[in-house]
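Lab channel / #folding
Pinned by the channel admin:
"Please post every new chain as: sequence first, then the structure tokens as a reply. Keep commentary short and put observations after the output so the thread stays searchable."

First post following the new format, from NK:
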Amino acid sequence: MRVYHFSENPYPAAWEADKRSLRVTLPNRHFDPKIGADLINRYIDEWALCDELGLDIWVNEHHSTATCVTASTMGLAGSAFQSDREGKPLIHRTASIPDLVKAGVVFAGTPDQVFDQIKELYDYVGGFGHLLAMMHGGALSHEDTVKSLTLFSREVLPRLGELDASSDRHLQSFEQLRQIATS
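Reply from TO:
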């Protein structure tokens, strides 16, 4: 028999704020981001415990209401329970940058290291024609973001065409992107 832990991931701090409706009409002014973040971290910890204990997890979404603050349970659960390439659990909010790099979730380092990390992921998943990359995060300043984007575009982007030498279509796309990035 499989047993599921079910949680709507509630935000009880707002339950007494407005008696008209907890599901639809509760104004955002009743939401404290610090409390919300602490609750999300609590729910991730509870899911991780269930996973360790052998319980399955059943998640629900209610478009971010006071009874369920998780608008996208699949995204949250997916990022909370990723494994590294060796099958070891990887919890993003507690993982180190080297752990995230090792798992192929983050690319960081010199341009050569970043290219090698992308190539390793490319080979691991069997190739891809598009890469969606967030090249800023956390408290990274605008200046550091510009520096990172520029370095990536000049040093890594031109080399990405090497990853799919058998496809003229991909080479043409990479060449177009390289020309835009270096102009």
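NK: The chain is about 45% helix and 5% strand.
TO: also worth noting, Residues 33-53 form the longest helix (21 residues).
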